[in-house]
Design brief:
Helix content is about 40%, strand content about 20%. Residues about 265-270 have low confidence and may be disordered. The chain has a seven-stranded parallel beta sheet, sandwiched between helices. The radius of gyration is 19 Å and the shape is globular. A hairpin with a 2-residue loop joins strand 8 (about 255-260) and strand 9 (about 265). It has helices at about 20-30, 45-55, 70-85, 105-135, 155-175, 195-200, 205-210, 220-230, and strands at about 10-15, 35-40, 60-65, 90, 140-145, 180-190, 245, 255-260, 265. The N and C termini lie far apart (about 45 Å).
């Protein structure tokens, strides 16, 4: 019987893969048998991650590049073309946030968030389309966010970029199905990563997070990487165009009370 739960013989690219969720995804795909290429801004971090993956028995390579720029995206595409004629898996994980109220952003910050979170994905998908199509049956997984599903306290440009990324996922899933390319996205809530460690250290803010999370806790990177890995496997071969929330129930939580530490919290999460 064909094993649908392996990535043996597959080639994968994971962007933003030297820490947090991206690092967990690169490790998960490597452990499942994929040859993994990673990309991130800092050369030392890329080298250390590649060495760690190879030391764990994987087959990894990497390139330091800035994917917020077109020059960085082209350099990565050239690097991949030099390595082989096909690409089975593309995980667009690279992304960042600047947490401010809407009126506090300047034009440079808005452009940086757009270029990093959205333009990087749009352009990299286009550049790598020939390699993905040549694989015959390939998978793109985009890193969305629950910020694209409901209003949070700050970060409107980040949420805008992720909402657009969700819709890009749907568009590409339809356009590129004939090319044998599946396109999905995951939408995490708070996950323990360096990007949010300062927020999670704020006890009052953490209480608010837990009050709005039915699971009663934040997530861990491996809880995202496992879902991403599934979307890359033959086991998910009929799944495309989907946005899968990884959020402990946050995105479906309505007006309910939750008792935490003897205190009752009320939350109203309004979905579009």
């Amino acid at each position: 019987m064909h094993n649908s739960w392996t990535l043996n013989g597959k080639s994968a690219l994971v962007t933003g893969a030297t820490r947090g969720i991206g690092l967990a995804i690169a490790g998960e795909l490597s452990a499942l048998g994929a040859d993994v290429c990673i990309a991130a801004r800092h050369e030392d971090a890329v080298r250390n991650t590649v060495d760690a993956l190879n030391a764990s028995g994987g087959r990894a390579a990497g390139l330091a590049c800035d994917l917020s720029t077109q020059a960085g995206r082209i350099a990565l595409a050239d690097f991949l073309r030099a390595r082989g004629a096909t690409l089975d898996i593309l995980v667009n994980n690279v992304g960042t946030n600047i947490r401010k109220k809407t009126l506090e952003y300047n034009a440079e910050e808005i452009a940086f968030l757009h270029n990093t979170n959205l333009a990087s994905v749009f352009e990299l998908c286009r550049l790598l389309h020939p390699l993905l199509a040549a694989a015959g049956s390939s998978s793109i997984v985009n890193m969305g966010s629950t910020a694209a599903l409901s209003a949070l306290r700050t970060g409107a440009p980040y949420a805008m970029s992720k909402a657009a990324l969700h819709h890009l996922t749907r568009y590409l899933a339809v356009e590129w199905a004939r090319d044998g390319i599946r396109v999905n996205a995951v939408a995490p809530w708070y996950i323990r990563t360096p990007l949010v460690e300062k927020l999670l250290a704020d006890e009052a803010y953490m209480r608010d997070i837990l009050a709005r999370t039915p699971a009663g806790r934040v997530g861990d990177p491996h809880e995202v990487s496992g879902v991403v890995a599934f979307l890359c496997m033959p086991a998910s071969s009929y799944v495309t165009g989907q946005i899968i929330a990884i959020d402990g129930g946050f995105s479906v939580y309505g007006f309910l009370g939750r008792n935490i530490g003897g205190r009752t919290f009320l939350s109203a999460v309004i979905q579009p």
